[in-house]
Amino acid sequence: MVTVTGQINKGAAENSATPAFSYKIKHQSDAHHLSFHSKENYITEALTMHPDATIDTKITSKQARRFFKDEAVFILNVSQFFQNNPKTTPDNLRIIALEHDNSHLDEMKNYANLIIKALNTVPTTERRIIWYRYVERLNLFDTAELVHIGSRQIQKYAQKGLVTFALAFQDTYDMLTYVAG
What digits encode the pLDDT tens for the residues 125-142? Predict the structure, then answer.
């Protein structure tokens, strides 16, 4: 089995106009670490080496869940998203207006807008589950009640929505994991 994971190499991104992406390819017992200066090179190389690669939905959804828990809510708070949109629901996620003053706040607003744009590509039920579970941090049963589905189905819908989010957000932060047999 081959597993390919990737993320932005933050140190290289800060020191270069083109961010570097680091990827680890694990093939059974041996591991290779590849670093490219564009995602396109990575995709071409990875698919050449493993043309039957597919997205590992379990690991990808775990990466996306971690992103929401560790980073997304922080970014939305720092960008003043909730102050600008106090009555936000997962059905009316709005883009934040930028000041265009090259400030750190504008940078955070832009990043928050990228999160919102990616979330808006997720189907309604899945988006609601992601929002209630990982942004508003509601428990499983309260989330199930709000979206009108059984609590056992929440995990399935959340996983599907998180993978959809990861695909839409991959140009900003790549949390996709590929597996080939």
Answer: 999 999 999 999 999 999
